Amino acid sequence: MVRGALAMLPLLLAVAADRPTAGVPAALGAMFAGINDRPGGHRSSVSRVGVPALAGAAGLLIGSLLPAVGPPEAAMLVLPVLLGVLGLLAGALSSTGPVASACGTQLLVAAVIGAGMPLPEPGGERALLFLAGAGWALMLRLVLPSRRRTSGGPYRYDGEREAVASVYGAVAGLLRAAGGTRAPARRAALTAALDQAQDALSGPRLRRYASSAAERRLHAQYAAALPLAEAATALAWAGEPLPDRVAEGPLRLAQAVRTGSACGPLPAPVRSDAGLRALDDALLAAAEAFDHRPGQSLRTVRGRPGLLALLRRAFGPAGREYGFRVALSCGVSAAVALGLDHEHWYWMPATAVFLVKPDLGPLVSRVLSRAAGTVVGAAVFAGFFALMAGPLPMVAAVSLCGALIPVATRHFAAQTAVVTVLVLSLVLLAGEPQAAWGRIVESLTACAIVLLVGHLPLPGQRGNRVRDAVDTAVAAAHRYLRHVLAHPQDGAGRGVLRRDAYRSLAVARSALDLSAAELPPVAGRTAEFEEVAGALERLVDTTTACAVHLHDRGATLPPSHAERIAEQLAALDAAHRASARSGVLV
């Protein structure tokens, strides 16, 4: 929150220099940086915040040039078409990953604002000011501590340290849940913790390798958690309850990561079967890694995809489907706003772009949240404006909103209310009239447009986003299984493929759960994938149990394991073929 308030300092400087309009793009850049910032490592924040900021600056520059493309009298026809084409490209790009999603959204929203907000600064200057505001917010993110100090290590690794400690805590949680109904949820929580730690430690391409002793130590501690996660998954798969003392070792390791202290003596479990022996070996290796090993660089099975791979994914079925919906939402809302001759016509397409993002929850839920948040934010701003006016109160309102963004991002309605007050304050600083109630009308109109477009049937296969995620997870699971059966003693290679299989499975499950929460016209398109996801989860967990057994015994699979693998492969194949047949034209 402190960083969010300090991020609005460029706006205060611009107002003090009697150039409030120059502070508006900088404040927008800082606002988007605050929205994109999430708990985690300092290193990963460079790509999570910085790359979308570059896209937003490019969008602001493009948007400032759009009104000059056609004659002014044709703007009502030309601008919606151009914004629709840009929306198609931005939407397709957004389908390739979370950072790309932030880039696509920021590019399009900034283009709409650049085309509609009447600022006196030229487009190039607006883009530079936007980058300056985002860069200032990013610098605060990198320099200031993320939390209260809990150890003697460098504060710049606080986020990474917490992410690695959460992995050990999740391992303990899974061990405690073994043999109970909560085991599947704990296994999913362990996957999420591993994903977050991997992202926190990997960071940008040029900074994937550990550059200091403290960072190498964190890499070693993360690597030591991977065999523990494998053993815990195998023990949970067996379905037998475990003694409470089994979870004490991972909990002590989690505390050692958080405090930077020695882990001390670790309780060893009874070495009665392959899973417990693997857990014992992993604990001993972790104790050694915490004290002696220098660490290693993280590996992923495919690395970062190249440009051609990203383009193929962006313009594949899932990218085309989402891009088309973004293009329709943005283009139609811009046409309606221009046709109604709204003074702030850019509000409607900018609202539509945010609403059409699936990252923010089910469509109906985010539409209702957006409507409620806009009404509350506009009412708060109208009351504030009635009590006091002038540039300094507006700057104070923007700073307060910047401080509230990290808290408000936990719920879309709260985020909408805070951003509404912030944007209305910036509109006044840009020299436009106060229009709180107009903001409500235009936002509600955008909600209706997105609700209609989101449920519009499109030609082609149904549920392409879910289908693409499930196909990726199926391929990763098969790679993992083949490697386990062919190279049972290759622990390092198995660990990389296991991470890829579980991560792909988590992405598929998240996409499926989001689709299932939609209204029946949307949820029905992907309901058939539920059986595929269930079969896939069972297969990947069984593969992990087989890997632990083969690594322990170095022999062929026992008949019980082999039978379960065969049954689950057959079930997965049948469910996958059934889901493929259900993808008929709509």
Beta strand %: under 5%
Oligomer: single chain
E-strand count: 0
- Rounded to an integer in angstroms, the radius of gyration calculated over CA atoms is 26 Å
Rounded average pLDDT? 82
- Report, as a whole number of angstroms, the end-to-end distance: 47 Å
Taking the sheet with the most strands, its summary is: none
Shape: globular
* Total helical elements: 24
Helix content: over 70%
Helix/sheet category: mainly alpha
Low-confidence stretches: 299-303
Order of helices and strands: HHHHHHHHHHHHHHHHHHHHHHHH
Describe the model:
It is a single chain. This protein has helices at 2-6, 9-16, 20-36, 42-65, 75-94, 98-116, 123-143, 158-177, 183-202, 213-238, 248-259, 274-291, 307-314, 317-339, 347-355, 363-387, 391-408, 412-429, 436-454, 464-486, 491-516, 520-523, 529-553, 559-581. It has 24 helices and no strands. The longest helix is centred in the middle third of the chain and has 26 residues, at 213-238. The radius of gyration is 26 Å and the shape is globular. Helix 4 (42-65) runs parallel beside helix 6 (98-116) and helix 14 (317-339) runs antiparallel to helix 19 (436-454). With 586 residues, the protein is mainly alpha-helical.
Summarize the structure.
The chain is mainly α and 586 residues long. Helix content is 74%, strand content 0%.
Strand-helix topology:
Elements: H1 2-6, H2 9-16, H3 20-36, H4 42-65, H5 75-94, H6 98-116, H7 123-143, H8 158-177, H9 183-202, H10 213-238, H11 248-259, H12 274-291, H13 307-314, H14 317-339, H15 347-355, H16 363-387, H17 391-408, H18 412-429, H19 436-454, H20 464-486, H21 491-516, H22 520-523, H23 529-553, H24 559-581
Helix pairs in contact: 2-3, 2-17, 3-4, 3-7, 3-17, 3-18, 4-6, 4-7, 4-9, 5-6, 5-13, 5-14, 6-15, 8-9, 8-10, 8-11, 9-10, 9-21, 10-12, 10-23, 12-23, 14-15, 14-19, 14-20, 15-19, 16-18, 16-19, 17-18, 20-21, 20-23, 21-23, 23-24
